[in-house]
Design a protein that fits this description.
12 helices; 77% helix
């Protein structure tokens, strides 16, 4: 239980922009996960450390770290935490020029979400997917992906960092296409961001 707690703490710290703390906790977490043989703890810690590398621009290192985890599907099927691996792996891949592989993960994730009727999975891929399609230069697809999450602006205004990822994609689309109405909407979200938002959400808002 301690290894798993430290693993999730590593991931949550990294996902909210506390990179230094994530690395500090992660070093202990990964060793404890290996000592007790807790796969979930090892996976989540690894993804958290990969997130830190992505934040620092070390996308190739992040991709290799995640690839070292494979395979993750066993006789009991696919555990829910494995979806986090796919999200962050796709993000790393798109930044090292492996766009087709990243989009394949996106398509597989959306298909799995529809098959399993998993709203969380569909909404998450809609936001991460919007950034992937943006990186591919598919502006209309990126916008459609983000806006498929009907409550995106409401969730983003409440400092939901997944929703904010989609809003960042919409901001880029608005800028490139000259859509003033869309740009006004995303700027309004950024300006109304709660003061107690996480560092990552604050960075998203500041960028917008």
């Amino acid at each position: 239980l301690r290894a798993r707690h430290l693993g999730w703490l590593t991931y949550n710290l990294s996902a909210t922009g506390h990179s230094t703390e994530a690395v500090s906790v992660g070093e202990t977490a990964i060793q404890e996960a290996l000592d007790v043989g807790d796969l979930e703890a090892r996976v989540i810690t690894t993804v958290g450390l990969a997130c830190v590398e992505c934040t620092a621009g070390a996308f190739g290192s992040a991709a290799r770290r995640i690839e070292a985890l494979a395979p993750l599907e066993g006789p009991s099927g696919r555990e829910s935490y494995v979806h986090l691996v796919d999200f962050h792996y796709a993000n790393a891949l798109v930044h090292v020029g492996r766009l087709d592989d990243a989009l394949r993960l996106l398509d597989d994730g959306v298909a799995r979400g529809r098959r399993d009727r998993n709203a969380y999975l569909l909404e998450s891929w809609a936001q991460y997917g919007s950034l992937l399609r943006l990186a591919a230069g598919r502006l209309a697809d990126a916008r459609a992906e983000a806006e498929s999450y009907e409550t995106i602006f409401k969730e983003a205004s409440a400092a939901n960092f997944t929703a904010m990822a989609g809003v960042v994609a919409l901001a880029e689309v608005a800028t490139r296409t000259g859509d003033r109405n869309l740009l006004t909407a995303v700027v309004d979200v950024a300006r109304r961001m709660p003061t107690d938002s996480t560092p990552l959400v604050k960075r998203y808002a500041a960028w917008i």
